[in-house]
Amino acid sequence: MNAKRGGDECQGAHGHDETNAVKSLTLNHERMMANHSEKQGFDPWMTYQGSLTNKLKETAGDARIELLGQGLELANDWEKEFLSITDSQVFRRDIVMWAFDKPCWYARTMIPDKTYQANLAFFGRLRKESMGDLIFNEPTLKRVDFKNYSIDAHSVEYDWVRFLLKDSKTLLWIRLSTFKLSEEFPFFLLEILLPQLRRYHF
Predict the structure, then answer these.
(1) FRET label pair with 166: which of 49, 87, 96, 141, CA 20 to 30 Å apart?
(2) Residue 74 and residue 87: Cα distance in Å, rounded?
(3) Are residues 89 and 141 in the same domain?
């Protein structure tokens, strides 16, 4: 009797583990499906290697840059930890790209002080030109890394764009590029794609 009951208990425990495993797989599948659903519409924009500004003008018929601010500032914890920036200061430039008065993406350029000081003439052009003008018209500049990832309301990056969102329930997608000047001086461009961009396809 005891042996049988022990066997029943083992079978019950095994069945419980299987149920938990199924639930876990189901939850993971649901998250993946939700992630895929949120990603739809952003796909071509996330992987496009050319000028996003020119592509927006081409597909939407309008593109306007709003400069939120630029200048040397103390490197923050996110830049130190996530980008491994060791300089005490970075030149930071924040913009919003609009199409027909709707925000399409937010971009932050982060230039370590060493890179900035060694290329003052190059980055000085940002007083009159866009970051895209510099990136796509400089033969000594190369993109050495490019990645995409999603963020939600709990992410640090999400706080940078809350003022552009109607609610904080939307999953957003990021393009993060690492560039190098003269194969020596790195800087970073982070672009947060906003929901309005989904209406434009190519």
Answers:
(1) 49
(2) 9
(3) yes
Same domain, 33 and 63: no
Q: Residue 181's domain is classified under what CATH number? A: 3.40.1410.10
- Distance, in Å, from the CA atom of 3 to the CA atom of 5, rounded to the nearest integer, reads 5
DSSP output for 91-132 = EEEEEEEEETTEEEEEEEEEEEHHHHHHTHHHHHGGGTS-HH
Residue-wise pLDDT for 39-66, tens only, equals 667 889 999 999 999 999 999 999 999 9
- What pLDDT does 6 receive? 44
The CA distance from 183 to 26, in Å, is 46
Place of tokens 């003439």: 121
Tell me if residue 44 falls in helix, strand or coil: helix
* Whether residues 2 and 48 fall in one domain: no
